[in-house]
């Protein structure tokens, strides 16, 4: 992996906030940090290919659009963990999936178009895996504004 230079850090910092809603948002960001659009896009691609960026895209508020999020957990036998991971991750509704050192060793987030979609997706995962999906619905949301300075 190529070490991050000052320009890479500027790129990472710039794309975390206020990406313009325009026909050429990357051209606007590039101009703000003194690059041309193609160089900015090449750097973003390289940072993604190197694993520095693991995800680049919008974060939508599903509830504001009529949908729902739900944190879920499962107790998965270690010898079946990879198989269960594949089954769970095959669902489009699964937004994140993490292994944890706990009796509930698989934690994932369901994001659905409707609140009823949570139970449908979780029930389908239970039927496919034979394992209980524990559901931890959101009671209240607190906006944290997660940002990592590069």
3D structure, described in words:
The chain is α+β, with helices and mostly antiparallel strands and 150 residues long. It folds into 2 domains: 6-49, no CATH class; 63-137, Alpha-Beta Plaits, CATH 3.30.70.3460. It is 37% helix and 16% strand. It has 5 helices and 4 strands. The chain has helices spanning 6-16, 25-32, 37-49, 81-89, 116-129; strands at residues 68-74, 94-99, 106-112, 134-137. The chain has a 4-stranded antiparallel sheet. The longest helix has 14 residues, at 116-129. It starts with 5 loop residues before the first helix and ends in a 13-residue tail after the last strand.
Keywords:
150 residues; alpha+beta; Alpha-Beta Plaits; 37% helix
The helix fraction, in percent, is 25-40%
Rg from Cα? 19 Å
Number of helices: 5
Total domain modules: 2
Would you spell out the secondary-structure blueprint of this structure?
Blueprint: H1 6-16, H2 25-32, H3 37-49, E1 68-74, H4 81-89, E2 94-99, E3 106-112, H5 116-129, E4 134-137
Antiparallel strand pairs: 1-3, 1-4, 2-3
Helix pairs in contact: 2-3
Summarize the entry for a quick read.
With 150 residues, the protein is an alpha+beta fold. The protein has helices spanning 6-16, 25-32, 37-49, 81-89, 116-129, and strands spanning 68-74, 94-99, 106-112, 134-137. Helix 2 packs across helix 3.
């Amino acid at each position: 992996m190529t070490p991050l230079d000052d320009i890479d850090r500027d790129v990472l910092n710039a794309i975390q906030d206020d990406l313009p809603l325009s026909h050429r948002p990357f051209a606007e960001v590039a101009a703000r940090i003194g690059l041309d659009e193609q160089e900015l896009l090449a750097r973003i691609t390289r940072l993604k290919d190197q694993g520095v960026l693991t995800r680049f895209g919008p974060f939508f508020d599903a509830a504001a659009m009529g949908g729902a999020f739900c944190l879920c957990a499962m107790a998965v036998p270690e010898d079946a963990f990879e198989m269960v991971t594949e089954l769970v991750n095959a669902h489009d509704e699964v937004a994140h999936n993490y292994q944890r050192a706990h009796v509930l060793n698989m934690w994932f987030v369901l994001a659905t178009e409707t609140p009823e979609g949570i139970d449908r997706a979780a029930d389908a995962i239970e039927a496919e895996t034979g394992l209980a999906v524990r559901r931890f619905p959101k009671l209240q949301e607190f906006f944290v504004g997660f940002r990592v300075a590069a």
